[in-house]
Amino acid sequence: MISAASHVDRIASIKIVLDHVEPAIWRRVEVPLTTSLRGHEVIQAVMLFENYHLFDFTIEIDGQSRRYGIPDPDGWIKLSDAKNTKLGPLTDRGLKRFAYTYDFGDNWEHTLTIEAIGDADPGLEYPRFVDGARRAPPEDVGGIPGFEEFVEAMAKPRHPERKRLIEWYGRVFDPEDIDLPTIKTNIAKLARRRAIGKAAFAKSRPSER
């Protein structure tokens, strides 16, 4: 049996694909196996979402499906607590692919595929953005139909809605530009927070004599 300690300094390479969109919008990241599903902030960081809305993961292992997210205090939606569920134990049980949904209004569905698991590079900080393609939709654009209309309007200088949408979005939308500088800034913040947390944990442990 693999112990929890073996997950320390092990990372998973994960490909994130936004479903129902062509050409594909995708990202590849490397995250520690000690990351909890509450760490969906990594997805938010590389897709340039703003974490305004609720989310859930749907995970199926051994024929059993379970949803993880922020538990509903009223019990209307049955969700296991994402904060208490780490990636490592799920991969130990054979997890290879799972689903992530963000914003139950716009309903952005993603497929996450664990492409590899290996040792972390001591010279790198994690989580880490590796690569990706195409710009993800802006917040509250109206789901897939709204995004398609948004992209079409932005691509046509004489489109009657283009001026209004530029004012709403704040600038011209380039679907090919993933905005790498912002992604790197977002990921660096998460990596820095993790490093501070690791240092604080190490400091809190009693020294060996």
TrEMBL record:
The cross-references to InterPro entries, in alphabetical order and at most eight, read: MM3350-like_sf (IPR024047), Plasmid_pRiA4b_Orf3-like (IPR012912)
Q: Which domain of life is it from?
A: Bacteria
Task: Identify the Pfam families for this entry.
Answer: PRiA4_ORF3
Residue span(s) of domain Plasmid pRiA4b Orf3-like: 11-180
Stated name of the protein: Plasmid pRiA4b Orf3-like domain-containing protein
- The species is Bosea vaviloviae
